[in-house]
């Protein structure tokens, strides 16, 4: 997994990262996944198999919720599995 979205995204679901992503690896979003999926999601998630590690999402996140895999703070480690599980369960 190249980048991971963490706790600061919970409840905000700002779409700046979705708009910045060149490979459409951040989900859910209403136009691509449907409004119901977007409304039900607690946060946004980065697909570990699609992310190309470009980093375009990091500087545009207004709540600083996105970290490169290698820089994930220890207290946010659980979000590595939370992001991966979202895509396993899709």
UniProtKB/TrEMBL annotation:
It holds the Pfam family Fer4_7. Keywords: 4Fe-4S, Electron transport, Iron, Iron-sulfur, Metal-binding, Transport. SUPFAM superfamilies: 4Fe-4S ferredoxins (SSF54862). Its cofactor is [4Fe-4S] cluster; [3Fe-4S] cluster. Residues 1-31, 42-71 form the 4Fe-4S ferredoxin-type domain. Coiled coil: none annotated. Ferredoxins are iron-sulfur proteins that transfer electrons in a wide variety of metabolic reactions. This is Ferredoxin. It comes from Candidatus Hydrogenisulfobacillus filiaventi.
């Amino acid at each position: 997994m190249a980048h991971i979205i963490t706790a600061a995204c919970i409840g905000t679901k700002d779409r700046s990262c979705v708009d910045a992503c060149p490979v459409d690896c951040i989900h859910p979003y209403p136009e691509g996944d449907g409004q119901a999926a977007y409304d039900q999601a607690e946060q946004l998630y980065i697909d570990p198999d699609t992310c190309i590690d470009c980093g375009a999402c990091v500087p545009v996140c207004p709540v600083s919720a996105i970290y490169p895999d290698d820089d994930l703070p220890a207290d946010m480690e659980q979000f590595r599995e939370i992001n991966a599980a979202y895509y396993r369960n899709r």
